[in-house]
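Appendix C reproduces, verbatim, an entry submitted by the partner laboratory led by Prof. M.T., so that reviewers can inspect both the input and the predicted structure.
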Amino acid sequence: MTAARANVRDRPRVARGTGKQGEETISAVACHIFRERGYHATSMRAIASALGMQPAALYYYYPGKEELLFSIMDTAVEALTSYVETHIDPEATAPERLRQAITAHVTAIAYHLDELSVFLHEMKSLSPKRRELIQAKSNRYEHIFRDILHDGITSKQFNDVDPRLARFMVLAACNWIYNWYKPEGTYNPEDIAQAFGDMMLHGLLA
């Protein structure tokens, strides 16, 4: 089975904008700098400078750096959840749905490295209250994979494995591409998704 090439118009929209000083443009620029330098090494002044804005103008949109980070992460997890859910056929078999979920997850990260790298890497930088809010949405997202694996094990389409460990394995492998994937590199997102799906399903199929 060959994975279909992702249509550009079909890619998840995550923190994109066209207005020079709009919130979406600020988020996109901040995402890139956070990913390149790290959250703690990035100042609001540096973000404002990259945008060609005065710091005071940036504070008009976001009272502080953590508010900006929280907005980025909240948008990213909501968009990722919606994108993956819409790319899963609820009538398909568990193996087919797992492959669909893996493909959507991998291509979303690859095509939105800045936004989803920040989401996956900077959870620890949030205050406890905000971290709890993002973690709750992240858990809801992970339940997509949990439910597919549970269905596959219960229906005996998958081997009788520990569903929690299987979920950890699938998501850990898919998430880690933000550390090594390069758009100019050897592999394109669809090929990575195809290979990951083949390898993971080979180990799970009954």
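The chain has ten helices and no strands. Additional entries are available on request from the coordinating office.
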